[in-house]
Design goal:
heterodimer, A: 362 residues, alpha+beta, Cytochrome Bc1 Complex, Chain A, domain 1, five-stranded mixed β-sheet, 35% helix, globular, disordered N terminus, B: 444 residues, six-stranded mixed β-sheet, 18 helices, 12 strands, Cytochrome b-c1 complex subunit 2, mitochondrial (chain A)
């Protein structure tokens, strides 16, 4: 039955397929990434609501039936939201590939967006999700860093906070505009490619529109700003800088260098990374804790060390390791330079804003 | 046609291989396309090999090694990250993870740390610094109600034996440990017959690993024994009204990982599986009868059924958490009533099929990182002595019938003593005897 050609005879050209070797013999994974569907697109929170409505009812199947069938087949699924994309993820016993291709395709091409599911499942889930994060000072500091570094687009809040009223119709029309073939990338592990291609040919992904009416605006970035948000609980202090993707490796080396100099210890959490997005990247160094004096001295010396560091390329091996660990191994071969420029940077404090130094005092 | 093609082109990517050297050293490896690969030195001595005066010593040895100057150098200059891990019966003393193409540095890191082991743990100030840090961390574990209730449930179940000691170690003993304690512990435990070299990922082949391991200077000696276990039905409670929820972990004594009944226990645990409550949008769709009942009646925030396996025993049960503190007695009562269903044979065929499929997915999936996968492989190699292939696991799970589960439940669950630990607002957690009575029922 799966071989019956129902509507198309070829894989849509605009859909990109990447197959990789897996880590398990019997388990396959299938990811459908919808590019440009993440929180950078649309108004604040819209993507989070859409992502959390995935895997509910479609015109073919109710959410209940999908869950029960997957349980019986030994499969699990999830919808993940990033700033760039919405990613439908599934892992399952390998013989069930056709079921999951069809299910994931239907999520994109035949969603029903039922009002009761929105009110009783999606909204409470999304608000609860935000509730678990809203007191996390590091999460808030990173949100603020994105907001001041990018304003719109990548600067949108990652999750729905409940402040804006968004209706089921907004979500439905948003889905129509971004669930399109040219946005879709499929990534699989432990799957035989010819089978995959066959199943995709016959899946409802073919029914998706090819091009979108939404035009992405160019991502702007802003540097040299400071933002301080008072909050109870732990304090996070961070400095960061929006950079072009061509400088990604250089700042990854800086982040690796800082990792060897500053380590988390009991009561102090240190984190430094370069977040890579489709259009820009964002470097940051953050420290979180309750001992403000210590936070001040760490952030001060981290900034000074970063400004005067030389021989960054000697951290290339460490940087390669860090990139592999975060699944960015495709970027390993890019060369980094020795020079970083932190004469201007963005500075964010969330927590005890009275006692943390201002950026011009560092 | 489809199945034939699947058959001919699929290949075994991740078959585990285990070898034993003449001096008793175990070598285990498993390929797989992990983001980073890892190689580690494991010992078959976790918290169970400790005593109440040196509790935490195995944790501390691993921590001191991964915080040593040598490890930091490897990290900064060669991109080899050294970590350690600890369980009840095994310890990951040195785990080196590395990116593709960096194999030789990882191997030399293991060699260097093994050769300089004695001088590293002789560094009094390093040991002292991490003894204090580890003791702070072990106190912090107590502030996570889930791991705390489970750890205390294990402690009360095996009270009086070394299996009761906390996995990470006791805060008040770790802080007092010195180089001398580490050395005397290692003198007994650091012998080839008690150690394994474990590697996961595509970077190091098994033969390469064997020849590397045979060059390591590891003293030979006889494998030290561990204290036998003893299960006692009992409970421990720490009522804490400052926590927002009530938490309890309840379990009964079941057979060890090497028993043929172990897989049966895993299937039984998967009948109700785990429950994420409002942390998953799909909670109300889940097929488990217990989760449906608890959702409909707002009786639970989170639960997890488990079948912990050790070399000679096991614990089967569940951890439950609820903000509905006044009705927590019902949460516990109906959970145990659903366990009764396993014994009286009223669990439906569909529920079993679901449990078996979900268990296949769980057991055949690899851990998210190569280091965690190494932990699993090291446990298999050191404690069980073998690692089932995927095909074996599938046939073992397929062999579990309703009849088998019913017999298993009647033997190990029906009217059996329980070990229980509760914390949070547990005013509605009934006394031991009331809950113990729920392990059976007056009607069949």
């Amino acid at each position: 039955m799966f071989f019956k050609r129902s509507f198309s005879t070829s894989i849509p050209k605009s859909i990109k397929i990447v197959s990789k070797e897996g880590t398990s013999n019997e388990i396959s994974t299938l990811k459908i990434k919808v590019k440009n569907a993440g929180s950078k697109t649309g108004s604040n929170g819209l993507s989070h609501l859409l992502s959390s409505s995935n895997f509910l009812s479609t015109s073919n199947k109710s959410g209940l039936r999908l869950k029960r069938e997957s349980e019986l087949l030994g499969g699990s699924y999830n919808s993940i939201l990033t700033r760039d994309d919405i990613i439908l993820e599934s892992s399952f016993l390998k013989e069930n590939l056709p079921f999951f291709i069809n299910s994931l395709s239907d999520v994109l091409s035949k969603p029903s967006f039922k009002k009761h599911e929105f009110n009783e499942i999606t909204k409470p889930y999304v608000l609860n999700y935000y509730e678990t994060l809203k007191n996390d000072s590091k999460f808030n500091a990173l949100e603020e860093l994105h907001s001041i570094s990018f304003r719109k687009g990548l600067g949108n809040s990652l999750y729905y906070s409940g402040l804006k009223s968004i209706s089921i119709d907004d979500i439905s029309s948003f889905a129509k505009s971004i669930y399109i073939q040219s946005n879709i990338e499929i990534e699989t592990t432990n799957i035989i490619e010819s089978d995959l291609n066959n199943f995709i040919k016959n899946s409802s992904l073919n029914e998706l529109p090819i091009e979108s009416s939404i035009k992405l605006t160019e991502q702007k970035s802003y540097n040299g700003l400071e933002s301080r948000i008072p909050k109870s609980g732990l304090t996070t202090v961070l400095f960061g800088k929006p950079i072009e993707n061509k400088d990604f490796k250089t700042y990854s080396l800086l982040s690796s260098f800082l990792k060897t100099k500053f380590e988390s210890e009991f009561g102090i959490i240190i984190d430094t990374k370069v977040l890579k997005y489709d259009s820009k990247s964002l470097f940051y160094f953050s420290t979180t804790g309750s001992n403000i004096e210590k936070l001040n001295s760490i952030i001060k010396s981290a900034l000074n060390e970063s400004k005067k560091v030389k021989n960054l390329t000697s951290f290339d091996k460490l940087s390669q390791f860090e990139l592999s660990e975060s699944g960015l191994s495709d970027l390993i071969s890019i060369k980094g330079e020795d020079k970083v420029d932190l004469s201007k940077y963005n500075f964010v404090v969330v927590g005890d804003v009275d006692s943390v130094l201002y950026s011009d005092e560092l | 046609m489809l199945s034939r093609r699947l058959f001919s082109t699929s290949r075994q990517v991740s078959k585990a291989q285990i070898t034993k050297l003449a001096n008793g050293l175990t070598i285990a490896s498993k390929p797989g396309n992990f983001k980073t690969s890892s190689i580690g030195l494991y010992s078959a001595s976790g918290s169970r090999s400790e005593n109440s005066f040196n509790s935490g010593v195995s944790t501390l040895i691993g921590t001191v090694l991964s915080e040593s100057k040598q490890s930091k150098e490897s990290y900064a200059l060669s991109g080899v990250k050294v970590t350690s891990s600890n369980q009840k019966e095994i310890t990951g003393l040195i785990q080196a993870s590395f990116a593709s193409g960096n194999k030789s540095e990882a191997l030399s890191t293991i060699t260097k740390l093994t050769n300089e082991l004695d001088s590293i743990i002789s560094n009094e100030s390093l040991v002292k610094e991490w003894a204090l840090n580890s003791s702070l961390l072990s106190e912090k574990f107590e502030s996570n109600p889930k791991s705390m209730s489970i750890e205390h449930m294990i402690s009360t179940a095996f009270q009086g034996t070394s299996l009761a000691l906390p996995t990470y170690g006791k805060a008040d003993t770790i802080s007092t440990l010195e180089s001398m304690d580490l050395k005397s512990f290692l003198k007994k435990q650091f012998v080839a017959s008690n150690l394994a070299i474990v590697s996961t990922g595509n970077e190091i082949s098994h033969d390469e690993l064997v020849s590397f391991a045979s060059k390591l200077s590891i003293p030979s000696g006889s494998k030290p024994s561990v204290q036998p276990f003893h299960f006692l039905g009992s409970e421990v409670r720490l009522r804490d009204d400052t926590l927002p929820q009530a938490h309890v972990a309840i379990s009964a004594s079941v057979p060890s990982v090497t028993s043929p009944d172990y897989i049966t226990g895993l299937v039984a645990a998967q009948v109700n599986g785990s429950y994420l409550g409002s942390l998953s949008p799909f909670t109300q769709f889940e097929g488990s009868q217990l989760s449906q009942f608890l959702t409909a009646n707002h009786l639970c925030d989170e639960y997890e059924h488990f079948n912990f396996g050790y070399s000679d025993t096991g614990l089967w049960g569940a951890y439950l958490a609820s903000h509905n503190i006044a009705n927590f007695d019902e949460t516990v009562h109906f959970t145990l009533k659903s366990w009764n269903r396993l014994s009286v044979g009223t669990v439906t065929e569909v529920e079993f099929e679901k449990a078996k499929s979900e268990l296949k997915l769980k057991l055949l999936s690899t851990a998210p990182t190569s280091t965690l996968e190494s932990d699993k492989l090291a446990f298999d190699a050191l404690i069980k002595g073998y690692s089932e292939s995927d095909a074996e696991l599938i046939s073992l799970i397929d062999d579990v019938s309703i009849k088998k589960i019913t017999k298993w439940a009647q033997t190990y669950l029906w009217d059996q003593d329980i070990a229980m630990a509760g914390t949070g607002q547990i005013e509605a957690l009934f006394d031991y005897n009331r809950i113990r009575n729920d392990m059976s029922m007056m009607r069949w």
